[in-house]
Structures are given as C-alpha cells and as structure tokens.
Amino acid sequence: MTMRFATVRVATGPRLRCAEHGDADGKAVVFLHGWPDSWFSFSRVVELLPARLRAFSVDQRGFGEWDKPEGGYDVDVFAADVPAFFDAVGLDRGAVVGHSFGSFVARRVAIAYPERVARLVLIGTGLTPVNPVTREVQATLPGLSDPVPRQFARDFQEGTLHAPVPATFFDQIVEESLKLPARLWRDVFDALLTYDDADQLATISAKTLLIWGEHDALFSRTDQDLLTRTIRDSTLNVYPGTGHCPNWERPEQVAADLAAFLQWA
After folding, report:
1. Burial, 233: exposed, middle or buried (Cβ in 10 Å; 0-12, 13-18, 19+)?
2. Which among 59, 78, 85, 203 could bridge 105 via Cys, Cβ 3.0 to 4.6 Å?
C-alpha cells in the first residue's frame, strides 16, 4: 500500500502535513518525529507495518514543509496539536509513538489527554531532556543562522547513529533537517530543555513500550530503568548495536515490535 499525503489544519492553529499508510478503517497510530526531523523519520518503519494499522506520520508545527508560526513551541503546545489532529481526521483515540523530542511530546499527550491515548511508545527517550549532552547541543545553537549549514545538520544527525543506515535515506534526513529555520532549531530545543514531567510520569495510564538502543549517545540505560519503574504499565525493549534512532537503524525490528504491541480493544 502506498503512502498518502494530506494537509490538515488543526484547531490549535497550524497546518500539519501528514503521510498516511495502511487501512483507512484500521486502528490509528500517530508518529511524532524528533528534532530537527519530519514525517520522513518514520518512513522506514511505517511501510513495514501491517495494513490493519492506520499510520499517520506528521510534520509537527514548524518542522518539514508546513506552517512555522512565530511562537507556540512549548511541549504543552505540541502536545495539544495531537488531539486536535485526531479531531481533524475524525479519530476518538489512537496510539501515539514518539522518537526523541517527539517522545516528550507523546508523554505529555498521555499525561494531559489520557482518554485519547490507547497505547504509548517512547523511542530514544530520557528521564528528563536535560543532561550534559543536550546542554552541549544547546550551546552550539545561539550563533546558528539561515541558511543552516548542511554540514552542521549532517554532523548532528550522524552523531545520533551507531548502526549504518542507507545513504539515500540519510541524505534525505539531512534535507528534512534543513527545512527547519535556525530560529526554530533554537526555540524548540530551548523550550524542550525547560520541560519537566518527572513528577507526572506515574500518572500515565496507557500501556507503554520503551525502545532504546544500547549505544544511545543522548539518554542512558539508567534513564530507561527509572522510566520503566515509574510508568506503571511499561516494558523496555533494548536493541543491541543500536544508537539513538532505532526507527532509522533497525526499522524491521521496530515495525515488528510495534505490530505486536499496538493491539487494543
């Protein structure tokens, strides 16, 4: 089944581009990409999912092709876009899958809108977004200007990988990163590092799957163990020989794990 693209205007304001794959009557799954990515970040995974799942990979506000409002880049605002997207496409609830930055948005959706989240999947997440590595990344951003240098984007994305990915795929990842203007590289990342949901994680009621690469350069195994103990109905899948982006590096394994996990009444 081929990917279908649409532009959806949500009640929270922006137009969001989405790629849809699977049965239009299937159980809905919304994929939230990382920073500074786009819908394309999950392209290797969704094409391997069973047709019974209706997969939506969205460009979150400011990313990819579509609207880049002047403000509204707090995690709470990104999270509010998800139920607004559900409403726009006629969904009551669905699974939410987030990678890296998108995992913190997904967590916020599960905390703030529990009735809309049937299952939760967190890929490459951390106990908090703040650690020495993310502070180091933040320190590189104040002098960034448009156009964002291609080598800057390439170096950042390469630094998240451990296992090799196809060259054509990685080249497109870099191209997608360059669609984010310099101000949003800074604004989104700065806002992310102010987000702290550690005291609310125990309220997550959705059954949760954590996926983590053992060579993740951003978030530690200690974080994964603390998250698994805190989120009450959660399971951790550790991927050997994998970095921060299992959805890029191990799409077959991620798709198989999602197919097994994303089943609900």
Report:
1. exposed
2. 78
- From CA 96, how far away is CA 117, in angstroms rounded? 7
Q: How far apart are alpha carbons 242 and 161 in whole angstroms?
A: 7
pTM over 0.90: yes
Domain count, the chain: 1
- In three-state secondary structure terms, 212 is strand
Q: Measure the CA–CA gap between 174 and 158, rounded to whole angstroms.
A: 9
CA distance 175 to 73: 22
DSSP label of 181: -
Q: Which two three-digit tokens encode residue 2?
A: 């081929």
Tally of residues, the chain = 265
pLDDT digits (tens, 9 = 90+) for 91-110: 999 999 999 999 999 999 99
Burial environment of residue 194 by CB neighbours within 10 A (0 to 12, 13 to 18, 19 or more): exposed
* One-letter amino acid of 104: F
Residue 16 CA to residue 10 CA, distance in Å, equals 7
Residue whose token pair is 């990344």: 137
123 - beta bridge partners? Answer: 99, 211
**How far apart, in whole angstroms, are the C-alpha atoms of residue 211 and residue 208?**
10
CATH number for the domain spanning 149: value is: 3.40.50.1820
Residues 40 and 109 sit within 8 Å (Cβ to Cβ): no
Q: Cβ–Cβ contacts within 10 Å for residue 56, how many?
A: 27
Q: Write out pLDDT tens, residues 232-251.
A: 999 999 999 999 999 999 99
